[in-house]
Amino acid sequence: MKTIGLIGAGHIGSQIARLAVAHGYSVVISNSRGPETLAPLVAELGPNARAATPAEAGQAGDIVVVTVPLKNYRQVPVAPLAGKLVIDTTNYYPQRDGHIPELDNESTTTSELLQAHLPASKVVKAFNHIYAAQLTTDGLPAGTKTRRALVIAGDDAAAKATVAGLLDQFGFDTVDAGPLKEGWRIQRDTPGYGPRRTADELRKDLAAAKR
Ligand SMILES: NC(=O)c1ccc[n+]([C@@H]2O[C@H](COP(=O)([O-])OP(=O)(O)OC[C@H]3O[C@@H](n4cnc5c(N)ncnc54)[C@H](OP(=O)(O)O)[C@@H]3O)[C@@H](O)[C@H]2O)c1
User: Fold this and answer.
1) Considering only CA atoms, which residue is closest to atom 21 of ligand 1?
2) The model scores a pTM over 0.70
3) CB of 7 shorter than 6 A to ligand 1
């Protein structure tokens, strides 16, 4: 059984954990306050879930999901994630995260910041433009005409293929926006950020995005 390690177990992290256990993964979840604070979620998720520290969750994961407020990305442990596929769900909200000059001047993107913090990991941007609650309501079987699609971006083709497979298992088509530096096309305030979109619609949204 493959393990997904989660660094962050809030709105998005808990939902990804629910999808993961429902699709046959084991999960190791973590937050900033300590494993004991996650007991209710572990109880809900069942025998294939446990809580740990962020470093332990990173160590345990075949895939690691970083799903914390962006302001805390530098606290994500580096060594346990080396060599691993790391999914980044973060978005930049200055009112929450404080101002980050290189994002304000659009010289980089959130996932490139995480990639720079985790130089030996393979970061793939995913799950950033869907409301947390919809992760467990909007999935549909592969081949459904109206199936919702989600965007990925990343610099490692094999890592992206793995994430596309995960999304497919979870009930979503994938639209590849290209390398991490193209991730801005699905950042806050772009056309594709938030609404339910099929793959064709989302491709148009990405093309129409303006910085
Ligand atoms: N909510 C959405 O619908 C949504 C959708 C797409 C993307 N996102 C993005 O995904 C990220 C997570 O959003 P969210 O809504 O899930 O946030 P959230 O509900 O506030 O949860 C954040 C989680 O991160 C944990 N955390 C914070 N700092 C940490 C650290 N240094 N080490 C380990 N864990 C840490 C928190 O733990 P404690 O509670 O113990 O502090 C909490 O479990 C954000 O960047 C957000 O912009 C959110």
Assistant:
1) 10
2) yes
3) yes
